[in-house]
Structure formats: C-alpha cells, structure tokens
Amino acid sequence: xxxxxxxxxxxxxxxxxxxxxxxxxxxxxxxxxxxxxxxxxxxxxxxxxxxxxxxxxxxxxxxxxxxxxxxxxxxxxxxxxxxxxxxxxxxxxxxxxxxxxxxxxxxxxxxxxxxxxxxxxxxxxxxxxxxxxxxxxxxxxxxxxxxxxxxxxxxxxxxxxxxxxxxxxxxxxxxxxxxxxxxxxxxxxxxxxxxxxxxxxxxxxxxxxxxxxxxxxxxxxxxx
Length: 224
Description:
Trp Operon Repressor, Chain A, Alpha/beta knot, 9 strands
C-alpha cells in the first residue's frame, strides 16, 4: 500500500510514522508513506498557501492552487483508489471503514488547516471525507496519523499474529473482552479460572459473553 499525505505541517507527521507498527510495516515493504509539503507549491516566494474567506468572516482558507498542483502531479504518476479529506464534517471513522480502506493499493490523504479548504477542491478531487470524531483539531495531521495507523495495522504481514487484528474491539461490533497475563494472581486478584483451564471452546464462549456484557455496559449503541 502507498499512502501520500498532503499537509502544510509535515513536521507533525514525522514521529507517528517512525515508530511501532507503522514503522514495521514500512520496514517490511508492506506500506509506503510519503508526506508532501503544500508549501512546495506556494503561490509566491513568501510561502503563501491560504487566503481570506470570500464573503467575510474569521479565519483563513487553504487555496486551490497548492492542493491542485500536488493532486495533479501525484495522479499523473499512478491511479488512486481513494482521495481522502480529513474533516470534522466527514463520515466518522469506524472499524468497517478502516477494513475497506485496507484493501486499497494507493491512497491520498489531504489534511485541512485553518478554516478548511476551498470547496472546489472537495468537488473536484475528493472521493472520501472522514472525521476521527465529533471534535475539532487544529489541523488534519493528527487525524491522518490515526487513520494511517488504523488502516496499516490491518495489512497482511504487519502484525506478528494475523488473528490479533481480527480480535480487536469493533471488528464484530463488540468491544474486546478483558485480557490477562502473568502473574496468575496479583494483590489478591486472580485470573478467571476458565482462562487457565485449557478448554478452548469454553474460553471462547467466556470471551464472547464478556465482550457482549462490556459492550452493553459501555457502548450499547453498537448493538442497535
């Protein structure tokens, strides 16, 4: 998978992709992540990429020219399965969407900033608009980092155990059940006997019951 990210703050995306699972995916050649600075296509020598809002109002809007220049250049090199704009008014990111995106080969992610991007960019290039939650961030960079992590960890060969991602919360519309490791007893709290029994069918039954109970208590909306 190749992911190209367009941003006016590329420095914000250095650390998230230089560690842990996303780095492992890149080291294995399973994912390529390229971060592109919108200011490379600024409209003047001062690095301007934004302008005032037509009609008045507070805030600045990212201009069409820097974004269009990158979009056209990238699309001239290869076809893209999705061109995603990270925005608070987009579709909320949920596990089924991450699953679908993990099947794509080439993705562009556009990080908004200031008051957002010129609407004509959305109408001309964007195929998917995604929000990471009902709150507002200073820009789309952190949202892009979240989306990349959610998608890349699903690629075959990235995780050490292929079943690990399949047992995550939300994969079956349930939260994950409680998990335990050694020691079997700590400060008077013992691991449930069923998990030490070696009876795999019973263990899976217990896990499903626990996942269902946890979902009912914490996220009943997932069961609707």
